[in-house]
Task: inverse folding
């Protein structure tokens, strides 16, 4: 049976996803009727999340909101708090690992919260699941899928005939293309680490293979098994995780579970880029959410992230943000000044075309188009009761999309956290022009700095002063 939504008065609709493993769009059918399990690979906590990292958090938060309408959802998003990049950050800063991870876990949750991302049901931490990881590795060794060598335990890729099926890689080609230099303890170049030894100054746990720490991939396999079971419904993450991370997770879990499928549906978001270059910490071209939210309302950033279909690339620019801001102005403008009673809110339904768009592989741009149609209908309506009903539908749609959470008057007054309204910017520029005319350059510079701190850059020209949000 295809998953269906049969609420009162609703048409039956089916959810479809593009599944990376099958390479096509397929109807969604959870393992257990009425229940869904979803796992999203979460952050490695050694610095602030950039706006590219926020994309999976936001798009799969939207998916969670959609699924919760019709299913009992258990959504897990892990925290990777043992990793060589964390160790390096600790050595570089001279701060203990615990202090670094605690700081960035909090920052991640605060930053994502500012973008309207609801906390997942479970937020498992790798360091709290070392026992489960060791048990899974032991199972893999016992069943002949992994081997121990010089304090390491490695997954024997040649033992898994399905290896490469998720990322569509041919193992023989991989072997042929492998670099000649291979770590001496490995049987083959593409065998990957399940467990590795730790030196005394590095984090480590006792294990049957000596004191050591887990590889990254086994963390997710063990946490998914513990909290969601052997077979999960949806596994999500960024496109860069397909290989090797998800390919390796799938190999470990399927082999540990005697071939039981690991994830029924694999969903991967496309990259966020800036000037057509992938945003990544290693390239250094990152915009941190932590900084952006100081000057741009979280809803603007959220909407900008939902502005492209999640599978498509998304190029981030000042225009992306301005366009999202204008869209929100239109939505808030439609509901401004309309009193909506609690009863009207409780009775409000989200329009079918908006839901249908989301059910079609989470088509957020199409869902936003439906949202705007509703706003247009509301703008045209003259009857007060009709206007209240439509405004209530706007708020119900906003709740589903994670938007329209502010009071419209506050929104336009620019009192939404971290933002200067366009009117306020114009007033400040006018004040600065007056100060300049009076040759009070100190005051003029102070205003320029105030605008700059709020993310607004100004340019004096022959036709006056122009401004833009950066
Ligand atoms: P990381 O902390 O690098 O492991 O990344 C956390 C999440 O962000 C993963 O799901 C990545 O796939 C995703 N991610 C990283 N960079 C980008 C990007 N530029 N665009 C979209 N997703 C990204
Ligand atoms: Zn993972």
Result:
């Amino acid at each position: 049976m295809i998953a269906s939504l049969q609420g009162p008065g609703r048409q039956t609709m089916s959810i479809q996803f593009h599944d990376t493993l099958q390479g096509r769009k397929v109807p969604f059918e959870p393992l257990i009727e009425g229940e869904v399990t979803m796992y999203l690979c979460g952050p490695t906590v050694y610095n602030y999340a950039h706006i590219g990292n926020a994309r999976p958090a936001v798009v799969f938060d939207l998916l969670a909101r959609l699924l919760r309408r019709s299913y009992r959802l258990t959504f897990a998003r892990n925290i990777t708090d043992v990793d060589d990049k964390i160790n390096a950050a600790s050595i570089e800063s001279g701060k203990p690992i615990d202090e670094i991870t605690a700081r960035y876990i909090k920052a991640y949750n605060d930053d994502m919260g500012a973008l309207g991302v609801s906390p997942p049901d479970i937020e498992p931490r790798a360091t709290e699941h070392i026992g489960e990881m060791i048990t899974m590795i032991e199972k893999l060794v016992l069943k002949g899928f992994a081997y121990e060598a010089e304090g390491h335990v490695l997954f024997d890729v040649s033992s898994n005939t399905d290896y490469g099926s998720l990322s569509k890689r041919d193992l023989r080609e991989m072997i042929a293309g492998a670099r000649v230099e291979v770590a001496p303890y490995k049987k083959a170049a593409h065998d990957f680490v399940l467990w590795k030894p730790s030196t005394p100054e590095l984090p480590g746990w006792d294990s049957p293979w000596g004191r050591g720490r887990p590889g990254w991939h086994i963390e997710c396999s063990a946490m998914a098994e513990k909290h969601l079971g052997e077979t999960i419904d949806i596994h999500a993450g960024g496109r860069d995780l397909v290989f090797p991370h998800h390919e390796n997770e799938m190999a470990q879990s399927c082999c540990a579970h005697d071939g039981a499928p690991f994830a029924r549906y694999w969903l991967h978001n496309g990259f966020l880029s800036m000037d057509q270059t992938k945003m990544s910490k290693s390239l250094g071209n990152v915009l941190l959410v932590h900084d952006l939210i100081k000057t741009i309302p979280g809803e603007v950033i959220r909407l900008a992230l939902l502005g492209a279909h999640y599978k498509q690339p998304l190029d981030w620019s000042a225009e992306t943000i301005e366009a999202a801001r204008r869209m929100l102005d239109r939505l808030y403008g439609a509901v401004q000044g309309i009193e909506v009673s609690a009863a009207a809110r409780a009775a409000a339904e989200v329009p079918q075309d908006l839901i249908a768009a989301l059910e079609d592989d989470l088509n957020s741009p199409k869902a936003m188009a439906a949202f705007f149609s509703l706003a247009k209908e509301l703008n045209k309506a003259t009857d007060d009761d009709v206007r209240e009903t439509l405004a209530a539908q706007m708020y119900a749609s906003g709740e589903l999309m994670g938007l329209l959470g502010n009071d419209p008057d506050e929104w336009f007054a620019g009192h939404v956290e971290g933002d200067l309204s366009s009117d306020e910017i114009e007033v400040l520029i006018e004040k600065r022009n007056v100060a300049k005319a009076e040759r009070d350059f100190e005051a003029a510079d102070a205003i320029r700095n105030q605008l700059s701190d709020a993310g607004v850059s100004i340019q004096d020209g022959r036709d006056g002063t122009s401004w833009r949000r950066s």
